[in-house]
Write a sequence for this structure.
């Protein structure tokens, strides 16, 4: 996949391209990636990229001409690319969108700064708009890195294990179970006994239980969306029964520390 980023801060991507998964993906030829400076496409002497908003108001707006020239130059290098504007107004990025994007041969990501880009740019130069969530960033660069990271690790051959990308959180719709490594006791906290038994069936059951409970407590929205398989219903009924017993017993015989 060819990835082109249009930004006023291309240096922000230098470290991003040269480490970890991005570096590996580039070295093995799974991606080629570059950040182009929008300012280089401004035609005036001072290479101005922003201007005051029509209608007044605080803040500045990105001028359309440098952005349009930058997008057209990027499209010459990547003619089949979708051109995706990173903006708080976009569709919210998700693992499902990452999967779709991982199948594309080329993408152009446009990073806004200031209050945003001149809206007339959207008419035919922008094919898609993406947000990464409901919080305020100072520009599209960090959001573009989030998208590129999530997409690149899904490109076949980029991650070590054949199925490791799709085995973790979100691929089965549950949060991950806890992980442990040595030492067996860390600052008084022990690794759960069952993980040291080598009893694979029990370990799988423990992990599924931990995943279900974590998801139930932290992300009940994910569980409602996904529903439960038969074995998962069994596990949750077991917990429902234990909790009911505790509550019934406490109603009859109140205990615990008074507050
Ligand atoms: C402070 C300005 N805001 C008015 C209340 C509007 C605003 C303009 C520009 C808010 C954020 C930005 C810059 N953000 C992005 O370019 C951006 C973004 C984000 O802020 N959140 C989530 N996803 C994205 S993608 C691009």
């Amino acid at each position: 996949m060819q990835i082109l980023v249009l930004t006023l801060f291309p240096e922000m991507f230098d470290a991003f391209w040269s480490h970890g998964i991005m570096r590996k993906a580039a070295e093995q030829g799974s991606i080629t990636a570059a950040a182009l400076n929008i300012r280089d496409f401004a035609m005036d002497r001072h290479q101005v990229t922003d201007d005051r908003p029509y209608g007044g108001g605080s803040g500045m707006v990105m001028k359309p001409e440098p952005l349009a020239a930058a997008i057209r130059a990027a499209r010459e290098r990547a003619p089949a690319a979708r051109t995706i504007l990173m903006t708080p107004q976009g569709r919210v990025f998700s693992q499902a969108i990452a999967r779709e994007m991982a199948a594309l041969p080329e993408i152009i990501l446009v990073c806004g700064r200031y209050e945003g880009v001149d809206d007339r740019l959207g008419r035919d130069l922008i094919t898609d708009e993406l947000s990464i969530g409901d919080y305020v960033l100072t520009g599209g660069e960090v959001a573009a890195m989030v998208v590129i990271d999530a997409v690149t690790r899904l490109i076949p051959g980029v991650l070590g294990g054949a199925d490791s990308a799709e085995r973790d959180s979100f691929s089965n719709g549950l949060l991950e179970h806890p992980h442990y490594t040595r030492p067996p006791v860390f600052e008084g906290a022990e690794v759960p006994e069952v993980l040291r038994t080598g009893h694979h069936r029990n370990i799988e059951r423990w992990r599924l239980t931990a995943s279900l409970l974590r998801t139930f407590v932290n992300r009940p929205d994910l569980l409602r969306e996904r529903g439960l398989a038969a074995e998962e219903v069994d596990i949750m009924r077991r917990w429902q029964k234990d909790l009911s017993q505790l509550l019934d017993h406490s109603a009859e015989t109140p205990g615990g520390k008074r507050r």
In short: The pocket of 9D3 is lined by residues 86-88, 112, 115-116, 131-133, 135-140, 143 (CB under 6 Å). The longest strand covers residues 82-92. The domain at 2-152 is CATH 3.40.1280.10 (Alpha/beta knot).
